[in-house]
Structure formats: structure tokens, C-alpha cells
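TA notes, week 10

Several of you asked for a full example with nothing omitted. So below is the full record: C-alpha cells for the whole chain, then the designed sequence directly under it. When grading your own attempts, check the secondary structure regions first.
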């Protein structure tokens, strides 16, 4: 709808997944809604997600697959707007989809279909979109929020912060949500890059020389463990298993990699009995270059037949928990999401409304709720957006 009056029931800052879902929900409930975004196009992260096919949800969504200072916070919204609800919307719009792996649902065609669907739903709700509008000022007086954007000022009794986190600044991501939240009295849990490749120190050069090699592993950090592929890069470690574990990793912590998770206990001793003349490298059922580097690091030269069973068991244990101590990550420039954000203790888990300031809401990635890789973050965007949209 064209932008005309400056008085609305709700102003939503951010036309990403969460903001659009919130706007459509509130608009279809009869609310006059304005969405403002500094980007000239809505849903830019949706467009590039899932390799252009948008991994829009996951059939395995459960609260324990989200990180937050309050692990219970996401339960209510995720329980009331589920992966099945979003899937039903996708199907109503005739968008073909498929399950790829581990419950991850993707469009058959293009992520553009998801943005078009959300914009269509906003249109049904008579939502006004103001794109390409940097927000100059946000104030609150007499129970109303005033937002100056471009040469206009819009006013509403409700303001929704949906400007996401600072991951991938070149896509227009900013820390604006945190600044605004702090100004209105909400706390912010320290934001960190998450779902991000990790970097290795120079003395792990042998591993960075494996750039491009990948293998199915189990990556562990503290109590978290992910069985997926790991990929060596020229700077360190990547691939789904590493992206997942990066959300749990903190500076100084060790990540343990099980390079041979499918092997039964005692497999290397059994390999010695079957092929005593084989070298350790030849006995490792791994990509050639990886087997070579691991064997070189272990330093067991000669035939495995010459090694004692005890030594082979020790090597097996070493391969099942190879320690890596990353010296950092690729940072917000490469992070798919942000861990941390607007503290949930100041928000209602049912409506996403700020407890102390009537009319203020925060949704999506801006909030301290971060999902696993695989459609979990969009499901949080949809669910939290829907929850706020029901309350506006
Ligand atoms: P989002 O960041 O999408 O939207 C925020 C909006 O606010 C943006 O439109 C931005 O322009 C606007 N904005 C920011 N600052 C502003 C300001 N100062 N003034 C005005 N507007 C401002 N997740 C998933 O579940 N499946 C997937 O396949 C992927 N794939 C993926 C790939 C890549 C490369 C990235 C970077 C991320 C993903 N994700 C993902 C994560 C997912 O994209 C992310 O969790 C959601 O987009 C978050 O939605 P939000 O609406 O909260 O923020």
C-alpha cells in the first residue's frame, strides 16, 4: 500500500523474515501497520539463504535446539507457531518444497518465492512498506513512538524492533536493534558471531594445508556434539559440523573432532589382524590427504603390524577426540547468525512485548535466541513475528 497517513497502530523496524511475518499477522487482524527498512528490497537474507533456495524451516524444531541465556524463553512462541504452520502457508501459496536432510525444508524453486509469499500476505493485511528509508530518529512520548525516516515521521502506540543482528554487514545488517533496545531500557546479552567458520593458529598449518578436504565427523565442545561434515579451509575449519559447534564455542575452548565416528571400538586392532603390512595411513578409512596428515601427526611410522594393541587403542582414542584449539572465527562478516542480543528477561515470551514499556516489542534475530543450522533460525523469525503480530 502507498504510504499516506503518518498515524499507525504499529511501526515495525526491519523488513526481514520476522518483521514481514509480524506485519502480515497484525495487518490481517485489522491493524494499520508500517514497516520501515533502510534496504531497498525486503527480505535480503531470505533471498540469499539456503544457497538461493531458502531452508525455510526444520521438521525437528524443538526448544533445546536454540541457544539463549534463558533456554525456556523460545518455548511458547515455537509451540504456538510451528514448522507445520509455516509449511501450511507455503503450500497454500503453491510453493513446491523438499526435505533435504535432517528435517531441513527447502524450496524446489527459489527463495524469492518465500519473499513474494510474505509480501503477498502483507498486502492482504494492507501493510504499508517504506523501503530504502534509513531510520533517523526514534522517540517515545505520551504513550506513542515517533519514527523519523527519510523526510517523514510516523507515529504509533506500538514499535517492533525487527532489525536483526550484525551478521553479514554487507547485506545491510547492523547492531541498530541493540542500540535502540538499550535506549529504551532493555539489556543486551553480548553478541557473538555464530554458525561461523573457525580459524586455526599457525602451528596447525598441516591442517590448513588440507584446504578443500571434507569428512563426516562428530564435533564436540562441552556438552554439545554435532554429527555432520567438517571441511578444512585455508584458514581453519568449516562445514556444517563446525558451523554448528561454533555457536557453542568460546575463546580458549578446545573442540574435539571424532574423525571416524562410524568405526566400532577396537577397529584399528582388527585392521592390524586383517592387514598387518598396511601403514597407518593406509589403514585409515578417510580421504587420502587427511589420512596422510593425521598419520604424520600421530608419528607411527612403519606397518601397523609392528604396533602393540595398546598403542593402536591409544591411536584410535586420539582419532576419536582430536583436539583443535581455534584462535578465533571468521567474525560477523561470515557468520550466518548472531548468538546473544536483546535479553529475554525484559520480554514476554508469549507476546515479545517489553515488560517495562507498553507498546515496545522485539522479535527475530535481534533477540537473544539463536537456532541451530538448518532452518531453525527462520522458524524463530516466523514464530516470534507471529507471536508479536497476534498481540499488536
Ligand atoms: P533480518 O536480518 O533478516 O532482517 C532485518 C532487517 O532489518 C533487514 O531487512 C535489514 O535491512 C533491516 N535493518 C537493519 N538495520 C536497520 C536500520 N538501522 N534501519 C532500518 N532497517 C534496518 N536461517 C535459516 O533458518 N535457514 C537458512 O537457510 C539460512 N541461511 C542463511 C544464509 C546466510 C548467508 C545468512 C547470513 C543467514 C542465513 N540464515 C538462515 C539466518 C537467517 O537469515 C536469519 O536468522 C533471519 O534472516 C533473521 O530474520 P530477522 O527478520 O530477525 O532479521
Amino acid at each position: 500500500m502507498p504510504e499516506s497517513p503518518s498515524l499507525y497502530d504499529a511501526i515495525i523496524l526491519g523488513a526481514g523474515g520476522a518483521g514481514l511475518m509480524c506485519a502480515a499477522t497484525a495487518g490481517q487482524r485489522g491493524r494499520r501497520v508500517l514497516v520501515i527498512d533502510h534496504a531497498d528490497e525486503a527480505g535480503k537474507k531470505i533471498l540469499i539463504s539456503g544457497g538461493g533456495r531458502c531452508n525455510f524451516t526444520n521438521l525437528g524444531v524443538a526448544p533445546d535446539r536454540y541457544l539463549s541465556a534463558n533456554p525456556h524463553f523460545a518455548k511458547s512462541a515455537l509451540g504456538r507457531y510451528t514448522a507445520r504452520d509455516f509449511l501450511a502457508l507455503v503450500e497454500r501459496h503453491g510453493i513446491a518444497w523438499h526435505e533435504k536432510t535432517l528435517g531441513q525444508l527447502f524450496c524446489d524453486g527459489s527463495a524469492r518465492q518465500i519473499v513474494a509469499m510474505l509480501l503477498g500476505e502483507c498486502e492482504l493485511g494492507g501493510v504499508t512498506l517504506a523501503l530504502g528509508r534509513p531510520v533517523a530518529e526514534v522517540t517515545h512520548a505520551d504513550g506513542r513512538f515517533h519514527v523519523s525516516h527519510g523526510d517523514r515521521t510516523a507515529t504509533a502506540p506500538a514499535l517492533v524492533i525487527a532489525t536483526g543482528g550484525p551478521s553479514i554487514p554487507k547485506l545491510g545488517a547492523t547492531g541498530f536493534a541493540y542500540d535502540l533496545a538499550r535506549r529504551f531500557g532493555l539489556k543486551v546479552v553480548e553478541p557473538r558471531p555464530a554458525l561461523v567458520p573457525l580459524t586455526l593458529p599457525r602451528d596447525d598449518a598441516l591442517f590448513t594445508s588440507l584446504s578443500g578436504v571434507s569428512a563426516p565427523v562428530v564435533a564436540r565442545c562441552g556438552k554439545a556434539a554435532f554429527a555432520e561434515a567438517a571441511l578444512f579451509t585455508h584458514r581453519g575449519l568449516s562445514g556444517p559440523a563446525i558451523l554448528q559447534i561454533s555457536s557453542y564455542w568460546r575463546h580458549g575452548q578446545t573442540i574435539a573432532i571424532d574423525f571416524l565416528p562410524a568405526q566400532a571400538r577396537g577397529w584399528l586392532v582388527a585392521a592390524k589382524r586383517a592387514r598387518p603390512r598396511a601403514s597407518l595411513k593406509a589403514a585409515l578409512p578417510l580421504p587420502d590427504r587427511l589420512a596422510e596428515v593425521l598419520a604424520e601427526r600421530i608419528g607411527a611410522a612403519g606397518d601397523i603390524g609392528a604396533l602393540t594393541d595398546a598403542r593402536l587403542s591409544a591411536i584410535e582414542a586420539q582419532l576419536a577426540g582430536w583436539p583443535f584449539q581455534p584462535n578465533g572465527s571468521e567474525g560477523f562478516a561470515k557468520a550466518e547468525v548472531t548468538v546473544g542480543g536483546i535479553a529475554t528477561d525484559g520480554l514476554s515470551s508469549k507476546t515479545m512485548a517489553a515488560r517495562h514499556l507498553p507498546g515496545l516489542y522485539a522479535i527475530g534475530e535481534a533477540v537473544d535466541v539463536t537456532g541451530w543450522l538448518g532452518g531453525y533460525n527462520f522458524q524463530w523469525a516466523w514464530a516470534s513475528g507471529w507471536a508479536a503480530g497476534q498481540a499488536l
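The radius of gyration is 24 Å. Use that as a sanity check on your answer.
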